[in-house]
Amino acid sequence: MSDSDLQIAGDILAVPHLLQPSRQHPGTVAEFAGLACSIAADRAQWEHLVAYDATTRWNHLLRTGPGYQAWLLSWLPGQGSGLHDHGRSSGVLTVLVGTLTERTGRGMRALSQGAQRVFAPGYVHEVVNDTLEPAASLHVYHPGLTEMPMHTCAAELAGATAARAARPLSR
């Protein structure tokens, strides 16, 4: 009789104390993107909360957990974020309603409903509603957002963005 892995290690199902507990909160980029997708798909979770303010961009902290925050933002035509990064936080931006334009050192990209962008800490961009219709988006940050440094120069945009490119999430 030969030794098999099962004989050497034992039956994992017979020793439940060795099993990893299921996580209650996301911990990887893929899990944060999945969280954003699940929130976006459940309109009852966020649709009644969206408000539009002509004087400033509206936002609402929708959810928070260990190491992350999920923010709901609204955008009237012409409203934008200004050129900024997210400090030490990574992020997932998901368009919930309408179309937003993301401007980076690599150019402009229209993001329509359902589009998702994943970005690393220090990624410099600007998000604007260039359309004539209101828009709403979900932003999940890991770790939670503690700073949002503003940038003033297009040269900063080109240099910082080239080093930290965002990428669309493959589905």
From TrEMBL:
Gene Ontology molecular function, alphabetical: ferrous iron binding; oxidoreductase activity, acting on single donors with incorporation of molecular oxygen, incorporation of two atoms of oxygen
**Which keywords accompany this UniProt record?**
Dioxygenase, Iron, Metal-binding, Oxidoreductase
**Highest taxon listed in the record's lineage:** Bacteria
Looking up InterPro entries in the UniProt record yields:
CDO_1, RmlC-like_jellyroll, RmlC_Cupin_sf
Database matches in PANTHER family: CYSTEINE DIOXYGENASE, CYSTEINE DIOXYGENASE TYPE 1
Quote the protein name from its UniProt record.
Cysteine dioxygenase
Q: Give the residue range of the signal peptide.
A: none
Q: Does this UniProt record's set of keywords contain Oxidoreductase?
A: yes
Return the Pfam families for the record: CDO_I (PF05995)
What family does the database annotate?
Answer: Belongs to the cysteine dioxygenase family.
SUPFAM superfamilies the UniProt entry points to = RmlC-like cupins
* Protein residues bound to Fe cation: H84, H86, H125
